[in-house]
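Notes from hallway chat w/ T.B., transcribed later so I don't forget. T.B. wanted the structure written out for a chain they're using in a teaching module, and asked if we could keep both sequence and structure tokens in one place. Agreed to drop them here.
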Amino acid sequence: MGPDYKDYEVAIIGSGFGGIGAAIRLRQAGVHDLVILEKADDVGGTWRDNTYPGAACDVPSTLYSFSFEPRTEWSRKFPPQPEILEYLRHCARKYGVRRHIRFGAEVTEARFDEAAGRWRISTTGGPLTARVLISACGQLNRPAWPDIPGRESFRGTSFHSARWDHAAPLDGRRVAVIGTGASAIQFVPELARRAQRLHVFQRSAPYVIDKPDRPYTALDHALMRHVPGWLALQRAITYTLFEARALGFFKNPAILTPAVRRWRRQLESQVADPELRRALTPDYPMGCKRILLSDDYYPALTRPHVELVTDPVERITPDGVVTRDGTTRQVDAIVYGTGFRANDFLAPMKIVGLDGLELNEAWREGAHAHLGITVSGFPNLFLLYGPYTNLGHNSIIYMLESQIRYVVGCVRAMRRAGLTWIDVRPEVAEEFRRRMRRRMRETVWERGCHSWYQDAEGRVVNNWPGFTFAYRNATRRPDPRHFRARR
């Protein structure tokens, strides 16, 4: 294997919230023989990669931190990207995680050696083995580039919002933005302030409601720092308010009626032009796609030098964008706000389990994992933020902590029983998959729209169709009856 080869008890792929949180909890459980494999040169995951102007979280800061490491120094109610990244760096330093990270080590392949009970892992930084492999890659780490003819022919500046080119000359230029998702509604207002002419190409209109953001005052910080229980109370209140919205996603969409009123009130107060207002009106029920928060997106589109284009993009030429009606808009730069390949949970890694089974083959009828964490036929492989674990209503940090506790429970159980490997039983995994499909059909996510929650066949494979506290209860501890094991 070479001089740099090493064997670990646990290998973690990725150093975002999932990877950092898992490493901290494993160390606290007495597991110190671990490594984090990180393809980049810093921690942070999606909060390291997404540095576009205006990047911020749409979950309040009171919920956007680990429960064991609450932060009191946020500058705003909704935390901006640089502060979230610094928080993750802080956690990695404080809890001794950085010493376990191999930077510049992108995983290309992992094969399970049944006889040895080890994952044989190939990385760009060299090979290694580990008894347990934890994928903490997340769902929003691989940019999705649109399949538009001529995209490579464009001679101007072009980049994806998740790989923002801060050196690109955009001030006073003609700029096209393709896509109107969660990232675009944050950076479009920034571009509208800089560009000479801005064309925003919209495939379908999102629901954009007001964002109740504000800077934290000195009094806010004093209360959080010095009043016992204050921050915990604010966290509990925010969690409860957000959790109540879940009923609108998987029980009765009518529960979202107040949010629909908020959206309509904002649209009507900020957009006077009836034609533009019609173009910004979604043709699907609220919640089918991600609900977006912004106070300045609609006003940006009303500026005289900003154009919202709803005619489909037909092709890209060396100097512009052509829509289906034959109109060519000449531009100097194109920014793709086209989201992520959210259904490719472990791509482009090649994952091979028992009997040579590849994960892509196991998922040929859609990605699935028991509790979103384990896949039958892939022993000692655990997924964080895997299938069925995304949310439309609350903080993903809460879900990650539930998953991490479950994974740590599995590792500790293996240690206590002296097990070489454990593998979720196929009948258990299949029953869970069927239950998810049944429940998903009742949700708003399958009511007339196409979103990144769905795979190519239209199956919703990303989201959890229930309350987050129900998920926490389901993952409270691993059930030995769900696994087959080998000593």
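Follow-up for T.B.: The chain has 14 helices and 20 strands. Might be a good example for the class.
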